[in-house]
Design goal:
Strand content: 35-45%
CATH class: Mainly Beta
Number of domains: 1
Helix content: under 10%
Largest sheet: 6 strands, parallel, barrel
Strand order of the largest sheet: 17-19-22-25-23-20
CATH architecture: 3 Solenoid
Distance between the termini: 17 Å
Length: 472
């Protein structure tokens, strides 16, 4: 069946989403409530819900133990709020708890975050959890399996809290066989792998920070995926073990489909340390010969992302059709100016390559208004327009970086503002390069604001066509 997408009339301008759209699985007549406050991004507007799971008629329920929490969640009526007192609750499992309508909200009773050592959401529905710590050695720490309408906002997910992922063997988040899962404003830290998303429909990961991990976010066989305004930094692989990490990786190994209906927008990847880390590595993995040419990533938009680092794969897309890659900035850090080698016996540092925008085995792809040190594009199946090559240390060709941005970024973690295109430059004339968002990554929000934030993103699940740029 061909795709049908509704264009937004207000790309790049503030615009409000229509209120009153019912979420699949809701009773007839039940609508998502939206306030006038909007989160606006290129091709995407979000409205915050002021009354997110505000509680039942008898008021919020307060709990102090894991048993009380699970019991309260099981008994709570849709719309209820459960307040969790400070403390360490150990593993918490909401298995088999399903709520209709607006679902239930679980949040701290005050400003102190309660802590879980694991969080299970298997065969669950209609649950929002905000501002909790999930810290421990469980694998995974947060397990969303065969679930729907799950909202996770403001969580801190991590292993041993020592800013060193080499002693962590676990994954932070699994989302598998689930639908309509929204994760916003969360921090992933001290983990072997931050997140796996697999065989699900409708997954949003937005405004999250990924740091002190050995591998970022992996996704396969997802229909409807939004990755927006996340920050990937301080990714620490073990090069001596042959690890080659990605901030974001797609694959199709062992699957029967690629990813479909995907938007990757406004993400910031400041990976300027002496470690070559791949940025958006949107490829296939191993595809058996009999499946080649039959499996693709389809209808994928990659826009307004900033990669800064020393891997040859700044943004790489393969085995894709019907894709739009536009207004991204791929900038070499100083460590990109030497060949890739492991520089210490432990494998903690290495030098790198000039980053590229690379495509192969693609068809029907538009590559427009990007900035990169190199463009490695196939001769067929791709149309190009208004892209700008900037200077690289190998060929010593291209527009000077300082002429594009005002100065070449050199810090390991540069500021977003350093990637703003200089007015009057060649890049500005082409309309090329990412527009840095106002922020990228997680920030501290109150319990009420974290709940409103994740609900605002979740309200877009059933209008996913508005994630895309107009006309695509």
């Amino acid at each position: 069946m061909p795709h049908r997408f509704v264009s937004l009339p207000c790309a790049g301008e503030p615009c409000a989403l229509p209120a009153g759209a019912a979420r699949p699985g809701m009773p007839a007549g039940h609508a998502v409530r939206l306030s006038r406050r909007a989160f606006v991004g290129s091709g995407l507007a979000l409205a915050a819900a002021p009354g997110t799971a505000a509680g039942n008629a008898s008021g919020p329920i307060t709990v102090s133990t894991a048993a009380e929490l699970v019991s309260a969640a099981r008994a709570a009526a849709p719309g209820a709020t459960i307040l969790v007192n400070p403390g360490n609750y150990g593993p918490v499992n909401f298995s088999g708890i399903a709520k209709s309508g607006s679902g239930i909200l679980i949040r701290p009773a005050g400003t102190t975050r309660p802590s879980f050592t694991a969080l299970g959401l298997r065969d669950s529905a209609g649950i929002a959890i905000v501002n909790m710590n999930v810290v421990g050695t469980s694998h995974p720490l947060v397990n969303v399996y065969n679930a729907s309408d799950i909202r996770l906002g403001g969580l801190r997910i991590g292993g041993t809290p020592n800013l060193d992922p080499w002693d962590d063997a676990n994954t932070g988040l699994w989302v598998r066989f689930s639908s309509r899962v929204t994760v916003s404003n969360c921090r992933f830290q001290d983990l072997r792998v931050a997140a796996y998303l697999q065989r699900s429909q409708g997954v949003i990961v937005a405004d999250c920070t990924f740091q002190y991990v050995r591998e970022g976010l992996n996704a396969c066989a997802i229909d409807r995926l939004l990755l927006r305004r996340n920050r990937f930094q301080l990714i620490l692989p073990n090069y001596a073990l042959g690890e080659h990490p990605d901030a974001v990786q797609f694959w199709m190994s062992g699957e029967t489909q690629g990813l479909r209906d995907v938007v990757i927008a406004e993400n910031f990847l400041p990976l300027g340390d002496q470690r070559p880390v791949q940025g958006l590595f949107l490829t296939a993995g191993y595809i058996p010969p009999e499946a080649r040419g039959t499996m693709f990533h389809e209808h994928v938009e990659v826009r307004d992302n900033i990669y800064y680092g020393s891997s040859g794969h700044g943004i790489t897309l393969s085995w894709a059709r019907n894709a739009l890659v536009w207004k991204n900035s791929i900038v070499a850090s100083p460590h990109a100016d030497t060949n890739a080698v492991v520089n210490d016996p432990a494998g903690r540092t290495g030098s790198g390559f000039q980053p590229q925008l690379r495509l192969w085995e693609t068809n029907g792809v538009r590559v427009e208004r990007n900035i990169s040190t190199f463009f490695n594009l196939p001769a067929t199946g791709v149309t190009q327009a208004r892209n700008l090559k900037i200077w690289d240390s190998q060929t010593r060709t291209g527009e000077p970086v300082a002429a594009v941005f005002g100065a070449r970024p050199t810090a390991s973690l540069p500021n977003l503002s350093e990637f703003r295109v200089r007015p009057g430059s060649v890049a500005a004339g082409l309309g090329a390069g990412a527009t840095p968002p106002s922020r990228a990554g997680a920030t501290s929000l109150s319990n009420e604001a974290a709940a409103a934030d994740v609900e605002a993103y979740h309200a877009t699940q059933d209008r996913f066509s508005q994630w895309f740029s107009p006309g695509f």
